Amino acid sequence: MAEFLELEAQDGVRMAWNVVPGTKQEAGNCVVPVSAIYTPIKPFPNMPLLPYAPLRCRNCRSVLNPFSIVDFAAKIWICPFCFQRNHFPPHYASISDENLPAELFPQYTTIEYQSPGEGSSLPPVFMFVLDTSIIEEEMTFLKSALSQAIGLLPENSLVGLITFGTLVHVHELGFGTMPKTYVFKGSKDVSKDQLLEQMSFFLNKPRPATGVIAGARDGLSSESISRFLLPASECEFALNSVLEELSKDPWPVPVEQRATRCTSTALSIAASLLGACVPGSGARIMAFIGGPSTEGPGAIVSKNLSEPIRSHKDLDKDSALHYHKAVKFYEALAKQLVHQGHVLDLFACALDQVGVAELKVAVERTGGLVVLAESFGHSVFKDSLKRVFQSGDKDLGLSSNGIFEINCSKDIKVQGILGPCASLEKKGPLCSDTIVGQGSTSAWKMCGLDQSTSLCLIFEIVKKDIPDTTVQSTGNQFYFQFLTYYQHSSGEMRLRVTTLSRRWVAGPGSVQDLIPGFDQEAAAVVMARLVSFKMEIEAEFDPIRWLDKALIHICSRFGNYQKESPSSFSLSPRFSIFPQFIFNLRRSQFVQVFNNSPDETAYFRMILNRENVTNSVVMIQPSLISYSFQSAPEPALLDVASIAADKILLLDSYFTIVIFHGSTIAQWRKAGYHNQPEHQTFAQLLQAPRDDADAIIKERFPVPRLVICDQHGSQARFLLAKLNPSATYNSDSHSGGDIIFTDDVSFEVFLDHLQRLAVQ
Hints:
globular, Four Helix Bundle (Hemerythrin (Met), subunit A), alpha+beta, Rossmann fold, Immunoglobulin-like, 8-stranded mixed β-sheet
């Protein structure tokens, strides 16, 4: 595993197969697709930043890289992708074996270019969209969190404010003498033209003729824009005084009804306003929503309390009345935002569902952040919001206006990307006929991206067969190049180029060559993203059956065994943990949606689709650490047998961190032993998992929920639900640990069945 981590530390890439199956049939037999999980703007301390424009191949537009063949005498380089011969321009005249430009150094397979004078003059823009149809207490929490956030905004950033409940209020922050708002009806969709008309943008000077280029800010003057978008340094006072005056939506709510909340209309107005004022800039709509949308085209439920909010069962049976209409609306909104280059961030804080499942498409296609919490007073929300604006070593590195492109060797096509991006519909010879996620394109828009945003690229090998085995040894490298053109958080435009080379194998005996290059962690994450995607788009899809068939197929192809002899079955160390990952994936919240609302499922999948391999593995298979008097903290098996009365367990399942006290430890703690000077070691034992949990929380976004519980307590369910049920209420022997009341099969039984089926 270590060499895969080294490759990731050099290029930000993890591939499921680091030795690639060379033909279409071989790749099909491998079950896990040829794929890569790539973090486009992962920070590398040693990566050079070149102050000039990249040199591109005149045929395929790929960038000069360490795999290019260079003829120093003739000053020519040959592109590894299309074999085109390119001449070096005059300013490369002095290159030689001893005098290489940085982009040809073998260790700089990932490099960044910063074109001089290409920085954007536009500052970052934040449009806050606040829900006011919430109770007073929540309103107070939200206002206090926001006033803290406003203090952290970059000085030069532009800020706007929209509040909504029954009606949508657009606040004119630039009108200094008194608070002034424009009010729109929540149930009515407002077009961009109507918006500009109603907000009297063209009062002093007539609207320009339609011949004017769109993007020249619709002919708006900077004075009219600065009525609604003001620099943070100037409007902090105005914004805080509006927030202080803000109270909950004044419209009365009948007893048997839900509050009127026109989320979709407010977001549509925010998008149109930003599209008119700052198209193409790094603008973010930050929506703070505290309940279900009940009005407008994106409503998820009616106002009548007698109608329940849609559940997974309703979505499966296609009986969710508002779902398709709302998704269609947010798809159109996503398209508009991608066209403008703007991001939608979602902070959903309510005990009820707010409509994350419907909003998912708009947040994901624009690369927005998403945080789901129970209340605006919860640390998950408050700390996550602070992290967004935090500067220093823990900042998220929010960047904008990204365009991501791929180049590959001619025997590889791209099926698509699973992750936070939108297809730019750039068709070409690279595009496969099979589409997965955002496909049939070789370029994608990433309106918002940060240092941990990771894309899952799915490839297809198109080579039919190998005509002659002797050819293999010379030209058996596949090349991939990823280009990310983006606006850095400092405002300058940069181009990150990553070029990879991977060996391919085919023909008899190639199975043994594939094994050393299999990255089981990356493969598990690819399967998790794929199964989540299939569950969303394929009707009647059975995820458990699909995963089981895939696992059986892999084990019978790569396992060592004698036919029909389960006891002889064994897997190479490269594959040995893969069945365990699949076992935990089958039980995870991505596949088992029974206990979650559609909003929670959508949230979990959105985070899975944007995180790197290490974080995603923790979501699939949580880590467990055991603390006791006998030994230093050590990793424990994710099994009910790890529970002991005299141990503390720390479970990290990414979204939740659980500190679990065994029954004896809990009794001692309740008796207050840790406060007594002679029990100093006990106090240290109690503190150790707290310190480790705090370290994890500081690193992570969204901030996880911390649960501290005792054995046999009600909150212990957070731990028990994740453990392998090796001892249940109906098993014969209990080895001193705990038991789990479940009918789920244990990992041992699962493995037993797997071995029997794999050797058939």
